[in-house]
């Protein structure tokens, strides 16, 4: 019972979404002076997560 490519893309997408959320929350709640950088990087993770989710079943 191994993981196929769709399962790997799903997990990668989910984990990248969690990392993006953590980065945005860190920027907003803890490091307010660096909020722009943290939020931009977190949004980048959201976009990469969306691309991985869109690639499921196509590669």
Secondary structure: elements and pairs:
Blueprint lengths: L4 H26 L4 H21 L4
Q: How would you portray this structure in words?
A:
The structure is a single chain. The two termini are about 20 Å apart. The longest helix is centred in the first third of the chain and has 26 residues, at about 5-30. The protein has helices spanning about 5-30, 35-55. The protein has about 60 residues and is an all-alpha fold. Helix 1 packs antiparallel against helix 2. It is built from two helices and no strands. This is CAL67264 family membrane protein. InterPro entries: CAL67264-like. It comes from Christiangramia oceanisediminis.
